[in-house]
Amino acid sequence: WDPNNDSEGKATKSRSSRSSRAGLLFPVSRVERQLRSGCFARRLGAEAPVYLAAVLQCVTEEAVAVAGRIAKDRDDSCISALHLRTALRKSSVLKQLRRGNGPSHHARAGQERQCRALASRKKATKQKQATK
Fold first, then answer.
1. Structural domain count of the chain
2. Is residue 75's pLDDT more than 70?
3. Distance between CA atoms of 84 and 69, rounded to whole angstroms?
4. Domain containing 53: what range?
Protein backbone atom coordinates (compact mmCIF):
# COMPACT_ATOMS: atom_id res chain seq x y z
CA TRP A 1 0.00 0.00 0.00
CA ASP A 2 1.40 3.36 -1.08
CA PRO A 3 -0.06 6.45 0.71
CA ASN A 4 0.87 8.67 -2.25
CA ASN A 5 -0.99 6.48 -4.74
CA ASP A 6 -4.75 6.77 -4.14
CA SER A 7 -5.74 5.25 -7.48
CA GLU A 8 -6.82 1.95 -5.95
CA GLY A 9 -8.86 3.19 -2.98
CA LYS A 10 -10.42 6.45 -4.05
CA ALA A 11 -11.07 8.04 -7.40
CA THR A 12 -9.28 11.36 -7.74
CA LYS A 13 -11.74 14.21 -7.43
CA SER A 14 -11.48 16.77 -10.19
CA ARG A 15 -11.95 20.34 -9.09
CA SER A 16 -14.76 22.26 -10.72
CA SER A 17 -16.21 25.66 -9.97
CA ARG A 18 -19.68 26.16 -8.58
CA SER A 19 -20.56 28.02 -11.78
CA SER A 20 -19.68 25.04 -13.95
CA ARG A 21 -21.50 22.63 -11.63
CA ALA A 22 -24.62 24.81 -11.88
CA GLY A 23 -24.18 25.21 -15.64
CA LEU A 24 -23.78 28.98 -15.44
CA LEU A 25 -21.51 31.48 -17.11
CA PHE A 26 -21.80 34.06 -14.34
CA PRO A 27 -19.36 33.62 -11.41
CA VAL A 28 -21.12 32.19 -8.35
CA SER A 29 -18.16 32.84 -6.05
CA ARG A 30 -18.00 36.51 -6.99
CA VAL A 31 -21.75 36.90 -6.43
CA GLU A 32 -21.38 35.27 -3.01
CA ARG A 33 -18.51 37.58 -2.08
CA GLN A 34 -20.59 40.62 -3.03
CA LEU A 35 -23.58 39.34 -1.06
CA ARG A 36 -21.45 38.76 2.03
CA SER A 37 -19.67 42.12 1.81
CA GLY A 38 -22.98 43.93 1.23
CA CYS A 39 -24.31 42.98 4.68
CA PHE A 40 -27.78 42.16 3.32
CA ALA A 41 -28.33 39.48 5.96
CA ARG A 42 -26.53 37.92 8.90
CA ARG A 43 -26.75 34.45 7.38
CA LEU A 44 -26.51 33.39 3.76
CA GLY A 45 -27.62 30.04 2.37
CA ALA A 46 -25.40 28.00 0.09
CA GLU A 47 -27.88 28.16 -2.80
CA ALA A 48 -28.53 31.91 -2.64
CA PRO A 49 -25.51 33.02 -4.72
CA VAL A 50 -26.17 30.23 -7.26
CA TYR A 51 -29.77 31.35 -7.68
CA LEU A 52 -28.83 35.03 -7.91
CA ALA A 53 -26.12 34.31 -10.48
CA ALA A 54 -28.67 32.36 -12.54
CA VAL A 55 -31.16 35.24 -12.36
CA LEU A 56 -28.49 37.77 -13.37
CA GLN A 57 -27.45 35.58 -16.28
CA CYS A 58 -31.06 35.17 -17.42
CA VAL A 59 -31.76 38.91 -17.32
CA THR A 60 -28.51 39.67 -19.14
CA GLU A 61 -29.28 37.11 -21.85
CA GLU A 62 -32.73 38.62 -22.35
CA ALA A 63 -31.35 42.16 -22.61
CA VAL A 64 -28.61 41.17 -25.05
CA ALA A 65 -31.05 39.14 -27.18
CA VAL A 66 -33.45 42.08 -27.52
CA ALA A 67 -30.57 44.48 -28.18
CA GLY A 68 -29.22 42.08 -30.83
CA ARG A 69 -32.57 42.04 -32.63
CA ILE A 70 -32.66 45.85 -32.54
CA ALA A 71 -29.12 46.06 -33.92
CA LYS A 72 -30.01 43.57 -36.67
CA ASP A 73 -33.10 45.59 -37.62
CA ARG A 74 -30.92 48.70 -37.96
CA ASP A 75 -28.29 46.79 -40.01
CA ASP A 76 -25.59 47.29 -37.38
CA SER A 77 -22.92 44.66 -36.86
CA CYS A 78 -22.26 45.45 -33.18
CA ILE A 79 -24.51 45.95 -30.17
CA SER A 80 -23.98 49.39 -28.70
CA ALA A 81 -25.14 51.09 -25.51
CA LEU A 82 -27.92 52.74 -27.53
CA HIS A 83 -29.24 49.32 -28.53
CA LEU A 84 -29.25 48.17 -24.90
CA ARG A 85 -31.07 51.32 -23.76
CA THR A 86 -33.65 50.85 -26.49
CA ALA A 87 -34.05 47.20 -25.49
CA LEU A 88 -34.72 48.22 -21.88
CA ARG A 89 -37.38 50.67 -23.06
CA LYS A 90 -39.09 48.35 -25.56
CA SER A 91 -39.10 44.95 -23.84
CA SER A 92 -42.08 44.46 -21.54
CA VAL A 93 -40.22 41.90 -19.40
CA LEU A 94 -37.22 44.18 -18.89
CA LYS A 95 -39.50 47.15 -18.21
CA GLN A 96 -41.24 45.22 -15.47
CA LEU A 97 -37.91 44.25 -13.91
CA ARG A 98 -36.72 47.85 -13.95
CA ARG A 99 -39.93 49.04 -12.30
CA GLY A 100 -39.45 46.53 -9.51
CA ASN A 101 -42.91 45.08 -9.08
CA GLY A 102 -41.85 43.02 -6.11
CA PRO A 103 -43.66 42.80 -2.77
CA SER A 104 -43.97 46.11 -0.99
CA HIS A 105 -42.62 46.77 2.50
CA HIS A 106 -46.17 47.07 3.85
CA ALA A 107 -47.05 43.54 2.72
CA ARG A 108 -43.90 42.20 4.33
CA ALA A 109 -44.74 43.94 7.63
CA GLY A 110 -48.20 42.33 7.54
CA GLN A 111 -46.64 38.91 7.05
CA GLU A 112 -44.36 39.46 10.04
CA ARG A 113 -47.38 40.35 12.18
CA GLN A 114 -49.16 37.18 11.07
CA CYS A 115 -46.09 35.08 11.96
CA ARG A 116 -45.93 36.66 15.42
CA ALA A 117 -49.64 36.07 15.98
CA LEU A 118 -49.29 32.41 14.98
CA ALA A 119 -46.31 32.00 17.29
CA SER A 120 -48.21 33.48 20.24
CA ARG A 121 -51.19 31.19 19.52
CA LYS A 122 -48.90 28.15 19.50
CA LYS A 123 -47.42 29.19 22.84
CA ALA A 124 -50.90 29.65 24.31
CA THR A 125 -52.05 26.19 23.18
CA LYS A 126 -48.88 24.59 24.57
CA GLN A 127 -49.47 26.29 27.93
CA LYS A 128 -53.08 25.04 27.98
CA GLN A 129 -51.95 21.50 27.22
CA ALA A 130 -49.29 21.67 29.92
CA THR A 131 -51.85 22.74 32.58
CA LYS A 132 -54.20 19.85 31.76
1. 1
2. yes
3. 10
4. 18-99
